[in-house]
Design goal:
Shape: elongated
Largest sheet: none
Order of helices and strands: HHHHHH
Number of domains: 1
Structural class: mainly alpha
Length: about 140
């Protein structure tokens, strides 16, 4: 398959209605997954700190995580890719839950009746996700 043909196929896939991102290679996908595991990244966060955070979340050695981060990994087997996908999804869910908790606490600190009502709905969402509301 020529480069032009594979580029056209990729752009056709990108335009499909599938919400999943399309990657040109496994390495690009792994790179995106590792970076997702480093989130959230505070302002001024150094890359080394982000790689270390991702390394801890993924349970991989720092050097392996760094190779994946920069796209320098020579090979990625299917088992490792599946693990990256699973851990990235878990990290994304944990970040979303943390965001809901922050919003809930902000609503409670507001003190208005409408804010308390929103906080109660957020409590329901947290319970539905198997998390007891924390904080205020």
């Amino acid at each position: 398959m020529s480069y032009m043909t594979s580029s056209l196929l990729l752009s056709d896939l990108e335009r499909s209605e599938n919400p999943s991102p399309v990657y040109a290679s496994t390495l690009e996908e792994a790179q995106a997954l590792v970076r997702k595991c480093a989130e959230p990244r505070p302002a001024g966060d150094q890359v080394k700190a982000a790689i270390l955070r991702a390394s801890r979340r993924l349970g991989l050695p720092f050097t392996r995580t760094k190779d994946l981060w920069y796209g320098d990994a020579r090979r990625i087997d299917a088992k490792e890719m599946d693990g990256l996908r699973d851990r990235a999804e878990s990290a994304e869910i944990a970040n979303a839950i943390a965001g809901i908790e922050v919003l809930r606490n902000r609503m409670l600190s507001s003190g208005s009746p409408a804010s308390r009502e929103v906080a109660a709905k957020l409590d329901d969402a947290l319970r539905a996700l198997g998390r007891a509301p924390r904080g205020k």
